[in-house]
Amino acid sequence: KEGDMVLPVALDNGFEIPYFCYHKDLAKGGSCMACLVEVNDPKRGKWVTTSCNLRIKDGMEITLDTPEVKKLRKQNMEMLFGGHLHSCDIHNNYACRMENVFKKYNVDDTKYERKEAEEDPFIKFNNAIELDTALCIGCTRCVKACESVGIGYVVMDEDSKKRRVINNKDPKVD
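-> structure tokens emitted (174 positions)
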């Protein structure tokens, strides 16, 4: 239907598009850049964009897996995985959705391999919220989830060279 976002419509109709930052109950995504599609609009021409931020328009043609989309999607996911600590217990003990997507799309998980660093703390906010920043890929989903319920525990680190979530340093946030 015209005006709806492409990604949820595609997913609801059985099409596969990888995504990490999108969640149906949260503000628009776009930060992970994994849900790329090619758009051919009679008025604007062809371009590649994120499907979670793209509204359906009459006459618009959307292609999911062109060679350019596959190439850009793979590059974006390689950079995402480079921000994720590979030796985490999640991969060893659970079915990690991210790792499953990367395998499906033949993402090279060593191209931007990250070294373990002391700068990635494990943050325990209270009995309900824990954040292991070594597992963060910078998708902003946890930030948007907190914002949607009025909690400001976590924010994106705007001063860092890498996209990552940190605890909010604002003394007014408890």
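The CA atoms of residues 39 and 62 lie 5 Å apart.
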